[in-house]
Amino acid sequence: MIKQLLAKKNLTKDLNKSGIQLEKTLSAKDLIFLGIGVIIGSGIFITPGIIAANIAGPGVVFTYLLAAIVCIFVAFCYSEFASAIPLSGSVYTYTYSIFGEFAAWIIGWSVFSEYLFSESSVAVSWSAYFQNFLSGFGIKLPDYLKSAYGSSGNLKGGFDLFAFLIVFFVTVLLLQGMKESVTINKIMVYVKIFIILLFIVVALFYLKPNNFSPVLPFGLSGLGRGTSLAFFAFIGFDIVSTASEEVKNPEKNVPIGIIASLMITAVIYSLVAFALVGAVHYSKLNVADPVSLALRLIHQNWIAGFVSLGAVLGMTTALIVVLYGGTRLVFSISRDGLLPKKLNNLNKNNIPVSSTIIFGLLSGLIAGVIPIDKLTELVNIGTLLGFSVVSIGVIFLRNSKNTKHLNPSFKTPGYPVVPLISFILCIYLMLNLQSFTWIAFGIWLLIGILIYIIYGYKNSILHNKKE
To answer: What is the set of domains in the chain, with CATH numbers?
Structure first.
């Protein structure tokens, strides 16, 4: 039993393209757009104001730059793994290759929670923005269909209809094929970036130097805490690595996609924060829509509508990429036998249809019935656990008997210092999460362990030693 729990993935077979494989259709440019699409979501319209008003003041600009540096450390580690093991499944596959089956299941189950609850929470936010947009035309849903039961601000809520419908739409879109999904994602990203740049340009015309004094009104501690919060605005870049198996020349293009999308979004986040605190005093930005507030305060209401559109598009692209990442994770786990075989069946468009439908249906239903404040509890801890494993895993990648023969085209700079720093920072951020989050995560892990004992252990491809 111990031998099976520690059994490692047969990389020779998988890398030689035996078994069920996904079609290679994505370029480096496609990956960059996927990365930008998922990283720049609703957070860019919300977090800069919260961080500035409560934690870092005008120093919010530096919090995004520092957070980006931390993320780039993690991205370096992801890039080395992706160039060494260009297979679907991201951190689950990497863990299976160096730490064994049981550890891979735990990590895969944890990251599954990240994708599942991220998809659901973004869908709920999308629904709220879209309902606000429709209300401008006098269109309103019945209270029961506006939000889930227990949602703040709506005591009569029962089911969030629009949250369910947007996930359903994205699921149908992904079933059409990756080329179609990537094309629509690109269009939305272009429009979203245009709207963001429009805000930056307009706000800079109203920049007041006095708004930047003092730079750090809450002290250096505020800079540190602000960086911790800003870090989560970049979550999602890891999903780019789930596409490895569908990428042309993945050894080269996946690292480019991960690192380039991070650097581009870091610049965009910093520019938005700079324009925001430059145009409006940071003390006024503690609201849910700081960008819209800033535009109203500088009497540019006409642009506020474009910003709302940008928020909707930003969340739509995030929904596309997160759902994509979740389905590829389920596909990979199923292909190894730890989940039912039906979940890795491919349709005529070379899409894992069962895993896409089930993941989409499950996340849509969760979005419909669970309030957003409950959904977000499990997202961060699953993400950070995956980040920490990838960071420390690079050291094992270069030394494990199962992987040391690999020759990745990208190698983490500053090895082994950078992986160790990345690992320590991720663990530090995990330890700063609320106790409730740890309790909920513990329950989630227990459920995962039961699934592995009941199904995964007995049906594992490695356990049965069959194709």
So the answer is: 2-12+21-464 (1.20.1740.10)
